[in-house]
Amino acid sequence: MSADTPVKDDPAAATGGPRGRSIPPWLRRLADVNEVWTFGVLVLLVVFFTAARPSTFLTSYDVTQIATNAAIYLVLAVGMTYVIIVAGIDLSVGSVLVLSAVLSAEYTIHHGGAKAGWGTIAVSTVIALVTGLVWGAMQGWLVAKAKVPPLIVTLGGFGAALGIAEIITGGQDPTGAVSNHLQHAIGFGKLFGQIPWLVVIAFATTLVFGLVLAFTRFGRYTYAIGSNPEAARRVGINVDRHLVKVYALVGLLSGLGSVMWLAYFGTTSIAGHATDNLTVITAVVLGGASLFGGRGSVLGTLIGVFIPAVLSTGLIIMGVQQYWQDVAIGVVLVAAVYLDQFRRRGRERA
Questions:
Q1: Transmembrane ranges (predicted)?
Q2: 22 phi and psi angles, rounded to 5 deg
Q3: How many Cα atoms occupy the beta-carbon half-sphere of 44 within 13 Å?
Q4: Domain range enclosing 104
Q5: Count of structural domains, the chain
Q6: 1 in a domain, yes or no?
Q7: Cβ contacts of residue 55 below 8 Å, gap of 6+?
């Protein structure tokens, strides 16, 4: 028998690998899915903290608090997912949230304050959404039409939006900025008495824009532009207009986040959003989105938002100082980016 003739009865020869080491194709495809790796990290964290503190971690109270605390960041992260997929960045989301909250609060203060009714709440909500939408569209125009790098545009937007908010308020959180009706119904209210309305709003937003990204032409254009903007132009996609829409979207969701923040905390918290952009970008990158553009998903972002949330809660329960919590989250982020680059090089070699 020739040395080049395969043994017909050898199962290893049929699969093209050494005996006993063949990997089913479905398992290989599953291993290539970013969300699987991200979910695996989340599961490992839950298992570790549950084993370390079985009587105190992941109680029903913990689950509710983790979900509620992550809700606003999840809304912001959904918008950031689109921006990162088109190979952009937005460092201004926290400041846009503050500006939207301040303008919304100013209207509420002058139309009933804490005793304002649902009419005032509706108008103030529209003000917050429109503020975020317009600010995001303006930044998108500077990126798409003026060709200013998104890092510079949104870094400038970060300072400008916060500065305008401080000028309007004198740097102080105004009193009577939130209607009691909004706080009791949305901030503290629960669907069926079990699920906080903030969580419902966040997951509904995630579902809608996840479906848009995965199954609509808008989503396909987003991936195409992030992968190769010149190729996207050649096939007829209006890249500049789409970029404006993407940045307008993240601004709109920042406005929505401001309404949720006002409802839950009852204040504009002008000085409390300096690191929102880093928190949100961390979640999106942990969710498998590539900072080089062209790859990412809202499902991955959903998982990525809960990794820092679970990590922080677990470390608090274990009595770890806040400083070490920040270190741990930073290490996880760097590890996630390194893994992304490692897998990227592996695919290129293959």
A1: 36-59, 71-104, 116-138, 150-171, 191-215, 243-264, 270-292, 299-317, 323-339
A2: -70, 145
A3: 7
A4: 35-344
A5: 1
A6: no
A7: none
